[in-house]
Amino acid sequence: MKIIWENIFLAMAAFAILYFLLHKFAFSKLFAIMEQRRELVMSQMNEAAQTRQQAAAYVEDQKKALEQARQDAQEIIERSRQTSTKQAEQLMEQAKEEAIRLKTEAVRDIENEKNKAVEELRGELGTVSVQIASKLIGREVKKDQAQEELVDQYLKEVGGRA
Amino acid sequence: MHESPIINVGGFNIDLSAVLMLVVTSAIVFILCRLAVRNLSVENPSKLQNFMEWVVEFVQGIVASAMDLKKGKAYISLGLTLILFIFVANVLGLPFAVITDLSENFTVFGQTIEATRGIGPDHYAHVLWWKSPTADVNITAGLALIVFFLMNYLGLKLNRKHYLKHYLEPFPVFLPLNIIENLAKPIALAIRLFANIFAGEVLIVVILKMGILGIPFLAIWQGFSIFVGALQAFIFTILTMVYISQTTIHEEH
């Protein structure tokens, strides 16, 4: 082990030259590229975060829209149910009214027929009773207006009592 | 003991082996880095670029462990050069050594190699040409001196008041102690690196003396020497960063 000053200076010079050459021709470029990559990664990460946020917002929107659609559907069902109930009630009402109307009509018809029959019977009875009376009395009972009115009146009394 | 191929040029002792190994080491590191940055790409880095980026991140980790990375950014290039240079220098001597037996007054470039001067006609000088440059204490001393100058220069430039005050702490009477502490740093750096690598090469020579029996030991020891070389490069770099951080950064207590 011998100290040789020339060697020390040679080593220092070699190292200094190597340092400047590397710094100028190799490391500066490499550092720039690494910095660029760092920025690229950062920007990509930011982008990813943004995309994630957007996706979350989109999902939120979709959820809201779905909820809205569900509500709408519920409303529509409710409304249609109400409408159908109303319609059914209306139909029932109509049917009832129709039935009542038919019933009243029928009752009126019956009444009419009955009255007509009574009327006819009454007319028949009047004629028959005049014939019987004329037979009994043995003379012609005149078939005039006065007599018939009389008979009718009696018959009415009879009928009203009956 | 092997001799160094020293020639005397104009009063300077030029160690041809040191020149050769420094040039080889620098060339390997420079070519490696140039290859790594040849086709730089952000999205699709080559394998070599990936490796180089891993080294850069490793050195960033070293710098960050010693100081705030914002202040330490300027030293990443230094740390990278140190770790690559020292690691390549450490492993260069592992695969082989080139030793020539030179007769008396052997000349290179017209200059006589000092070790062969006047050794007699039947004697040979064993001259070591190819070795780890860091197995020479002068080379590691050069590296350590760079660190020494750099840390004191940066301390004076960036942190003058606290740097100077630190020599008088905790009491002015500690001044000589602090100066010795400061001087011990580069000496420790140089000796530690030199001793580790030199001892590794000496042990390789010893194992080679065992002949065929030594092959497994040689394999184990060379593998371990690669580890030691990486470790010493790492230690040199991290200590450099710690020293720079000690002199330049003053933390308010």
From TrEMBL, chain A:
Subcellular location: Cell membrane; Endomembrane system
Coiled-coil ranges per UniProt: 52-120
Transmembrane segments: none
Keyword terms of this UniProt record: ATP synthesis, Cell membrane, CF(0), Coiled coil, Hydrogen ion transport, Ion transport, Membrane, Transmembrane, Transmembrane helix, Transport
InterPro entries: ATP_synth_B-like_membr_sf, ATP_synth_b/b'su_bac/chlpt, ATP_synth_F0_bsu_bac, ATP_synthase_B_chain
Chaperone is among the record's keywords: no
Origin: domain of life: Bacteria
UniProt keyword DNA-binding, yes or no: no
Function: F(1)F(0) ATP synthase produces ATP from ADP in the presence of a proton or sodium gradient. F-type ATPases consist of two structural domains, F(1) containing the extramembraneous catalytic core and F(0) containing the membrane proton channel, linked together by a central stalk and a peripheral stalk. During catalysis, ATP synthesis in the catalytic domain of F(1) is coupled via a rotary mechanism of the central stalk subunits to proton translocation.
UniProt record similarity statement: Belongs to the ATPase B chain family.
NCBIfam families on file: ATP_synt_b
Name by which UniProt lists this protein: ATP synthase subunit b
Automatic annotation (TrEMBL), chain B:
Pfam family, one: ATP-synt_A
Protein keywords: ATP synthesis, Cell membrane, CF(0), Hydrogen ion transport, Ion transport, Membrane, Transmembrane, Transmembrane helix, Transport
Keyword Cell membrane: yes
Domain of life of the native organism: Bacteria
Mode of membrane association: Multi-pass membrane protein
Main location class: membrane
GO biological process entries: proton motive force-driven plasma membrane ATP synthesis
GO CC annotations on file: plasma membrane; proton-transporting ATP synthase complex
Coiled coil regions in record: none
Name of the featured protein: ATP synthase subunit a
GO molecular function: proton-transporting ATP synthase activity, rotational mechanism
Function: Key component of the proton channel; it plays a direct role in the translocation of protons across the membrane.
Residue stretches spanning the membrane: 16-37, 75-99, 137-156, 193-218, 224-244
Family statement: Belongs to the ATPase A chain family.
InterPro entries associated with the record: ATP_syn_F0_a_bact/chloroplast, ATP_synth_F0_asu, ATP_synth_F0_asu_AS, F0_ATP_A_sf
Compartment(s) of residence: Cell membrane; Membrane
